[in-house]
Amino acid sequence: MRRSVLIAGAGPVGLTAALVLADAGVPVKVFEAGAHVEEDLRASTFHPPTLDMLEGFGITAELLAQGLVCPHWQIRLHPGGERAVFDLSVLEGETRHPYRLQCEQWKLSRALLARLAGLPGVEVRFGAAVTGVAQDAAGVACTVESAGHTETVRGAWAIGADGAKSAVRKAIGLEFDGLTYPETTLLATTRFPFEAHLEGLSNVSYCWKAGGNFSLLKVPGRWRVSIYPREDMPVEAQLAPAAIEAALQEIVPRTQAYEVMEVRPYRVHQRIVDRYRVGRVFLAGDAAHLNSPAGGMGMNGGVHDAFNLGAKLAAVINGRADGALLDLYDRQRRPVAREQILAQADRNRARMREKDDARRRAMLADMQAIAADRARLKAHLLRTSMIEGLRQAAQVTG
What whole-number distance in Å separates Cα of residue 164 and Cα of residue 130? Predict the structure, then answer.
């Protein structure tokens, strides 16, 4: 108990933290409310530094085998096709993976679970929800509910990686300040080959259309279409099959109906806690910060949290560092979330929500100028690919 870490949440963030700790010989217990890893419509973009981090565990190669390399991404006007294309090869020398990878997050979760299964001192329990946390000078106690049974599990430290509705965050009394954007986004998937009908389409494409916008993100075997709904219709009405069909027909008109595989509505939030640590309890990922998915920074930022925190906890538990090191986690990661991840995601969202045609074209011209200038392009991609944020964090040493 004097060494063990209890982790709430078996998503990519919680499992990454568990792997970093277990690889360093620290016992971990992971509790997940869900019955298994859900193959649902969540994050699908891996940025270059995330691939760099995961490479040490052999996971990047596995993800590359299951995903789609995205050497460039774009912003375009629809239906004309004018676009700014951001070529990530300019990042060669700054990262071992100068591209984005399009791969569903559940594939990462499964790869992490497979690695954890081969390490001693690891327990992962599904169908077990952490509903409360208490702490004292000796350690932490998590209340865990499973199959109608409640138990108390003790450990030395705890990590709340249990998502936006984090029970751990609530238990330690932290507010989740910020806002919820007014719109509801509709996510639909289809096997229709948009790339065969929209010239020069990237695997990640953010598109303006008349009066609105949409995005197209390709993953193996399907396109994920984010539809930003009309403001003159209730969201419920726009979830109807006929409304989804009409939205897809607006992207590429065709005589046949689209085969729609999944549809999911979601709200977008911009929130962050005022500290990542309360005593022996830490927060990471969506439990600590939420942002617009525009730019694909949420899951990646959470994984970066997990690597940072896991390494520090392991160093302290194994006697290689003083406990004061743990305060550095908050000082390194929270400013990056606030100033880089949330701010960049908000700028991405605001740009794509622009509806004035003249302003859109001015924005596009500016982005085309950035894409055409190697120095400006590299600076832009260092920021939007999250490399700059990690370097900012590394500069905080005290």
Answer: 14
Confirm whether 123 is domain-assigned. Answer: yes
**Locate tokens 């596995």: which residue?**
62
* pLDDT above 80 (res 229): no
Note if the bond before 79 is cis, omega within 30 degrees: yes
Pairing label, strands 157-160, 5-8: parallel
- Within a domain: 318: yes
- The CA-based angle 320-323-329, given to 5 degrees, is 100
* Predicted TM-score of the model (pTM): 0.95
120-129 burial, b for 16+ CB within 10 Å, e for fewer? Answer: eebebeeebb
Q: Whose CA is closest to 276, among 161, 383, 167, 388?
A: 161
With respect to residue 369, please indicate whether it lies within any of the assigned structural domains.
no
Separation of alpha carbons 193 and 110, rounded Å: 28
Exposed, middle or buried: residue 230 (CB in 10 Å: 0-12, 13-18, 19+)? middle
- Would residue 233 be called left, alpha or beta, if left means φ above 0 and alpha means ψ between -120 and 50 degrees? beta
User: How large is the average pLDDT for residues 108-124?
Assistant: 97
Q: How confident is the model at residue 1, as a pLDDT?
A: 66
Looking at the predicted structure, is the pLDDT value of residue 232 above 80? no
Domain boundaries, position 337: 5-64+101-177+270-348
What's the pLDDT tens digit per position in 13-50?
999 999 999 999 999 999 999 999 988 878 999 999 99
Both tokens of 152, joined, read 């108390």
User: How far is C-alpha 364 from the geometric centre of its chain's CA atoms?
Assistant: 26
Give the domain CATH number at 122.
3.50.50.60
Residues 82/51, Cβ–Cβ less than 8 Å: no
Q: Is residue 229 part of a domain?
A: no
The structural domain count of the chain equals 1
